[in-house]
Amino acid sequence: MSNSKNLIIGITGMSGSGKTTLVKALSDSINATAVYWDDFDAISKAPEDLVDWYHRGKNHTEFDYANLSDVLNQFKSGGTVQHPVSSEKLVSAPFIIFDAPMGRLHHQTGRYIDIEIYMDTPPDVSLARRLIRDYEHTPDDKNEVIEELKFYIEQSRPLFFSDDLKNSADLIMDGNIATNHQIEIIHSYLRNIKL
After folding, report:
1. Rounded to an integer, what is the distance from CA 39 to the centroid of its chain?
2. Which of 79, 87, 135, 172 has an alpha carbon within 20 to 30 A of 191's alpha carbon?
3. How many CB atoms lie within 10 A of CB 40?
C-alpha cells in the first residue's frame, strides 16, 4: 500500500461493465475526486483499431497517456491539480477514484493505482449497456445497431474478456448488482484493509 497522502482507487473492466457509473457514485459517497480516462483521449495517443491491437498482442504501451500519468503523479503529492483538458481545478482529496479501463496492465498510469477494483460483468450485459448508451437517443439508427452486433460477433467479442485484468485486481465486483450495493461492498472493503 502506498505511503502517499492520497489513495488512488482504480475501477477497471471492459467497455459497458459499469466503470463510469461506479466511479461517479463512489466519488460522491466518500467525497473523493474522480479522474476519467476518456477525458484525456484528445491529448493522448492510442491504437486506431482495437481489434488489430488485440490480435497483435495487446501491447499496453501503445496507449500513451502521459498527461494522465502526470495528473495521477501530482495527486500522490497532494495539493490541487489543474486538469490539462478542461483546466478545471481538481482538489487532491484523500481518495482519488480513477476510471481506469486497463488498470495496472497500463503501467504508465497503473503504477499509481493503490487499490484496483475489477467490474466483473458478463459480455452480453456489457454489450447491451453500450448499445443502450450509444443509441437510446437515436431510435432511428436500427441499421447501426445491427452493424454493431455483427461487428461484435465477427470481430470485437474478444475485447470483452480479460483474465489478465481480472487477475491483477484487489477486489472483484459483481457488475450485475445494484450500484448502491457495490458501494456498500467497497466501503466495507476499505474499512477492513490496512491503509
Report:
1. 11
2. 79
3. 20
Beta-carbon contacts of 118 under 8 Å, excluding residues fewer than 6 positions away, are 12, 13, 103, 165, 166, 168, 169, 171, 172, 173
Task: Work out whether the CA dihedral 172, 176, 181, 182 comes out positive or negative.
Answer: positive
Residue type at 17 in one-letter notation: S
pLDDT single digits (tens) 108-144: 999 999 999 999 988 888 778 877 877 777 767 778 8
Alpha helices in 61-178 (DSSP H): 66-77, 107-110, 123-135, 142-151, 163-167
pTM comes to 0.86
CATH fold of 7-121+162-192 reads Rossmann fold (3.40.50)
Phi first, then psi: give them for residue 153, nearest 5 degrees.
-65, -40
3-state secondary structure labels for all residues of 8-67: EEEEECCCCCCHHHHHHHHHHHCCCEEEEHHHHHHHCECCCCHHHHHHCCCCHHHCECHH
Which residue has cell 447491451?
128
Instruction: State the amino acid at position 66 in one-letter form.
Output: A
